[in-house]
């Protein structure tokens, strides 16, 4: 019986906690550099090629009853290439994001469509500025079949129906919101690149709580930037950062990676990546990656060294990203864009 009470208390605490966590912050990735459309709408079309597809899978705090699972799939591409000025670019992107918490008790599905316009500020496109907008439709559901409440507990286990007030509310909520961002890039040579961007998410704050009109998606502000520079003949150093602020939530991610180009490996373009990022919740995030022709695969494992033990603590968090770029031209970087 004591064991059942403990399980019930934990289950109830997780439900309450997840409700507050969803209110507090949007889903985010340790590999933010491989999830461009969730960082800044101005990153839509910001790549060397004609079409890009990106997928991210993140499993966070799996030891807490599969606490968080987030998946994305995005595609962005060029528009009106024959009608846009040579150093400009008009792009469109589509993003699908699914975020599940508490062993799929709460599911948040999103469909976002973004547009961006990159304006070259000189004839050699050493400097450019991009403005992006994104419309996001979200649907959030509470799955009662996977939830267990304290009033369901009997000596024989969780057998009673629950009379919790939450179950009397509307357990599905939808909303449409607007995101926007701006990006400035400077590339003095084809091998050096610097950029900085600012974005705002949830401008309308339209996503509401179950059974009420209180917003659970407050304004999210993001500043991000990065650079790349050659190291020797075949190496490149990449560095990037992302700072997010949403209500009382503040988070900084900063780090870098070294990449090494393996010349003519199996008659293919092969580049290896090794690096690490630091998160201000006291997490180190090692990164390994490999680029093979048009594909780039990346893996991170968040390693926390904090003494805090909470359901929000990063303990066993794995993340995989898969990046595909169509018509990428390594010999002619017409559009100078950062990788990280």
Structure description:
The chain is mainly beta. The protein has a single domain, classed as Beta Barrel (Porin), CATH 2.40.160.40. It has two helices and 16 strands. It has helices at 2-24, 36-39; strands at 51-60, 68-79, 89-101, 106-120, 127-142, 153-154, 157-158, 172-186, 193-201, 220-231, 235-246, 249-265, 268-279, 283-292, 295-304, 317-326. It starts with a helix and ends in a 14-residue tail after the last strand. The model is unreliable at 1-24 (pLDDT under 50).
Any key phrases for this structure?
two-stranded antiparallel ribbon; Porin; disordered N terminus; 14-stranded antiparallel barrel; mainly beta; 340 residues
Strand arrangement across the biggest beta sheet: 1-2-3-4-5-8-9-10-11-12-13-14-15-16
CA radius of gyration is 22 Å
Flag low-confidence runs.
Answer: 1-24
Number of strands: 16
The average pLDDT value, as a whole number, equals: 81
Look up the CATH topology. Answer: Porin
Q: Into how many domains do the coordinates divide? A: 1
- Derived from helix and strand composition plus strand pairing, the structural class reads mainly beta
Distance between the termini: 52 Å
Overall 3D form? globular
User: What is the CATH homology-level superfamily?
Assistant: monomeric porin ompg
Task: Tell me the name of the CATH class.
Answer: Mainly Beta
Secondary-structure element order, as H and E? HHEEEEEEEEEEEEEEEE
Strand fraction: over 45%
Helix content: under 10%
CATH architecture: Beta Barrel
Number of helices: 2
């Amino acid at each position: 019986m004591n064991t059942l009470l403990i399980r019930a208390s934990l289950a109830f605490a997780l439900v309450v906690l997840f409700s507050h966590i969803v209110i507090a912050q949007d889903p985010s990735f340790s590999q933010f550099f491989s999830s461009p459309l969730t960082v800044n709408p101005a990153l839509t079309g910001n790549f060397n090629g004609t079409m890009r597809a990106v997928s991210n899978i993140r499993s966070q705090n799996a030891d807490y009853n599969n606490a968080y699972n987030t998946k994305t799939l995005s595609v962005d591409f060029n528009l009106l290439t024959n009608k846009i000025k040579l150093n400009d670019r008009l792009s469109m992107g589509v993003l699908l994001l699914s975020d599940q918490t508490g062993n799929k008790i709460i599911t948040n599905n999103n469909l976002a469509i973004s547009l961006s316009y990159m304006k070259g500020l000189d004839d050699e496109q050493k400097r450019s500025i991009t403005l992006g907008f994104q419309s996001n439709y979200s649907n959030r559901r509470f799955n009662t079949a996977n939830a267990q409440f304290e009033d369901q507990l009997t000596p024989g286990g969780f057998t009673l129906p629950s009379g919790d007030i939450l179950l009397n509310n509307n357990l599905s909520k939808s909303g449409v919101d607007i995101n926007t961002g701006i990006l400035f890039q400077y590339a003095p040579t084809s091998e050096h690149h610097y950029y900085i961007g600012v974005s705002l998410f949830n401008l309308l704050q339209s996503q509401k709580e179950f059974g009420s009109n209180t917003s659970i998606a407050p304004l999210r502000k993001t500043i991000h930037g990065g650079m790349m520079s050659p190291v020797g003949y075949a190496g490149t150093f990449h560095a990037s950062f992302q700072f997010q602020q949403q209500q009382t939530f503040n988070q900084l991610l900063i780090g870098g990676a070294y990449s090494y180009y393996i010349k003519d490996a199996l008659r293919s373009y092969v580049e290896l990546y090794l690096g690490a990022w630091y998160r201000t919740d006291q997490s180190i995030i090692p990164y390994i990656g490999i680029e093979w022709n048009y594909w780039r695969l990346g893996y991170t494992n968040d390693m926390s060294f904090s003494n805090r033990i909470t359901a929000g603590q990063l303990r066993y968090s794995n993340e995989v990203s898969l990046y595909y770029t169509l018509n990428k031209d390594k010999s002619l970087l017409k559009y100078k864009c950062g990788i990280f």
